[in-house]
Specification:
Length: 536
């Protein structure tokens, strides 16, 4: 059968050959490690959420039954399926079920709404859409109905809000498919969403080889083993929850995954205590909330061995509080859904632990730190980070124009991050050259928000930037110029947010602040100075 490579930029043949010879890429597909664990210890607990616990045996059985149900809906090898679920066991079940069929899940953040989901469905030509009836007050069943009306070929699966219910029960009545290989390791295995820097979200195609490599190496580097109990308290579709080391790492190692509906101390502290959580991967604002919570004294958090913190910059000051106050090793990481992941090794010295965001996971990772003219900088000096390697994509999905700008001719990905790399190869993230806002780990493309705000009556021009925020690192601020003759006081934050909500934009992308101005500050060449706006 032909490989599933639609929309994928292949690795040069010699490079792929080298990655396989060097053992970075193996002859394994992503569901296989789970089923190896199922075979080894079917009775052990795999996934816990609320009062529900699934053993490995039960998880494996559910995966194969749901696969049967999806096959009945017409999902087969190479088909794209948008998985739009919150932190519920069904996310894990559906993703593995889709893999069992050789199909390709698109990991859509639960916070996404019509604008984003429609783009994924259309751009990827999705065969099916899996979601929950309601999420955070939004009627997603209605969205599913809208999508099917517009795309008659699209099949939808709408679970109850908790990811269970009659629709799931019916799928589970299907006879299980046989567990067998229906995809090749070289096939595109999944599409991850990128925070993006442009008007449209980008999709990131990983193969079983590229993703599996990242997972395998993360397991030991994050100290994951059969006794690990991992808490997933950030959105489950995020790389940190899936592969760094994520549920893929934990289920491969034979540990237990505990799902939290959100990351607040009220939710997670009781879970840590009750289930003896040993590891969690979190974004800085969550860590800060845990550190600053008075609830800490009322819960036994002593089972925590390590906390992986990444997605956005953690201040050294907060970093230093982690071990004394939470009793866990802090492991900073700096990764990107495009592939590259850096971790501080767990036994690194205290200075590195607080100040650095890690070094590459894979010996196959190649990093360049370049000045504005493209010349390498000396270690210890800041520069633009470019990278290629066995877990880093060579191009976004179906996006030739974008790829020409985001990748060099020899296949390096331009991360848009400014970093300092020291002599040992440890990285500190010091800035960003891409037009992106990092709102506490959630990435916002200003252009996407600007395009939607421009459609609002009364708006002449808009510029969206990230401004400093003590907890989130950055928050979203919109500068707006009113159209001539329009009373500027009618353009309020509430009006703009309501407009964006009606357009179906994810809540976290909406401006937190608004300033109506007569004109934008300009650079010498007449461009809007986002630099000046960021200070305001
Ligand atoms: C500063 N900026 C950071 C950090 C990511 C593991 C961990 C994180 C991600 C991730 C991931 C940062 N300090 N410690 O995929 O597997 C910013 C950079 C980067 C972008 C990627 C993983 N850690 N960042 O965050 O695709 O700007 O992946 O390029 O969501 O987040 O974002 P994302």
């Amino acid at each position: 059968e032909p490989l599933v490579t639609d929309g994928f930029v292949p690795y040069p043949v010699d490079v792929a050959g080298r990655y396989r010879r060097d053992g970075h890429w193996t002859d394994e597909t992503l569901p296989e490690p789970l089923f190896a664990s199922v075979g080894r210890h079917p009775e052990r607990t795999a996934v816990v959420a609320g009062d529900e616990a699934l053993t490995y045996g039960e998880l494996g059985d559910r995966v194969l039954r749901v696969a049967g149900g999806l096959a009945d809906l017409g999902v087969g090898r190479g088909d794209r399926v948008v998985v739009h679920l919150p932190n519920v066991p069904a996310f894990i079940v559906f993703v593995y079920a889709i893999w069992e069929l050789g199909a390709v899940p698109i990991f859509a953040p639960a916070a996404h709404r019509r604008t984003e989901i429609e783009q994924f469905v259309e751009h990827a030509g999705a065969r099916a859409y899996v979601t929950v009836a309601t999420h955070a007050g939004t009627d997603l069943a209605a969205l599913a109905a809208e999508l099917t009306a517009a795309h008659p070929g699209l099949r939808t699966v709408v679970l109850d809000a908790d990811g269970a219910g009659a629709v799931l029960d019916r799928l589970l009545e299907h006879a299980p498919v046989a567990h067998e290989r229906r995809s090749a390791p070289q096939d595109v295995a999944l599409l991850q969403t990128s925070g993006g820097t442009t008007g449209r979200p980008k999709l990131i195609p990983h193969t079983h080889e590229t993703y599996g490599h990242s997972v395998r190496l993360s397991i030991p580097l994050c100290g994951i083993g059969a006794d690990s109990v991992q808490l997933i308290a950030v959105p489950i579709c995020h790389s940190m929850s899936v592969r760094s080391p994520g549920f893929l790492g934990v289920l491969q190692a034979g540990g237990t995954v505990v799902l939290a509906p959100d990351g607040s101390p009220d939710t997670v502290f009781p879970l840590i205590e009750r289930h003896g959580v040993t590891q969690a991967s979190v974004v800085p604002p969550l860590l800060l909330a845990w550190l600053n919570s008075s609830l800490r004294e009322h819960h036994d958090l002593s089972s925590l061995e390590s906390l992986h913190v990444g997605g956005a910059k953690l201040s050294a000051e907060s970093a230093r509080r982690v071990t004394p106050e939470l009793g866990a090793i802090l492991q900073q990481g700096f990764g990107m859904a495009e592939g590259l992941v850096n971790y501080n090794r767990l036994d690194v010295d205290e200075e590195t632990k607080a100040n650095c965001q890690g070094r590459p996971v894979s010996p196959g990772d190649e990093l360049l730190v370049l000045d504005d003219d493209g010349a390498p900088v000396t270690p210890g000096s800041p520069g633009h980070l470019l990278t290629r390697g066995p877990s880093t994509i060579r191009g976004y999905y179906r996006a030739p124009e974008l790829n020409a700008a985001s990748f060099t001719e020899d296949g390096y990905y331009r991360t848009g991050d400014i970093v300092v790399r020291d002599e040992r190869g440890y990285i500190t993230v010091v800035g960003r050259s891409k037009d992106q806002i990092n709102r506490g780990g959630e990435k916002v493309a200003p252009e996407e928000v600007e395009n939607l705000v421009l459609a609002l009556d009364g708006v002449h021009d808009v510029s969206v930037v990230g401004v400093a925020d003590r907890v989130l690192g950055e928050r979203v601020k919109a500068y707006v110029v009113a159209r001539e003759g329009v009373d500027p006081s009618t353009l309020t934050l509430g009006v703009i947010r309501r407009h964006l909500r009606e357009r179906g934009l994810a809540e976290y992308k909406m401006p937190d602040a608004l300033e109506v101005v007569a004109e934008f500050p300009r650079t010498a060449v007449g461009k809007v100075s986002k630099l000046l706006q960021r200070q305001g």
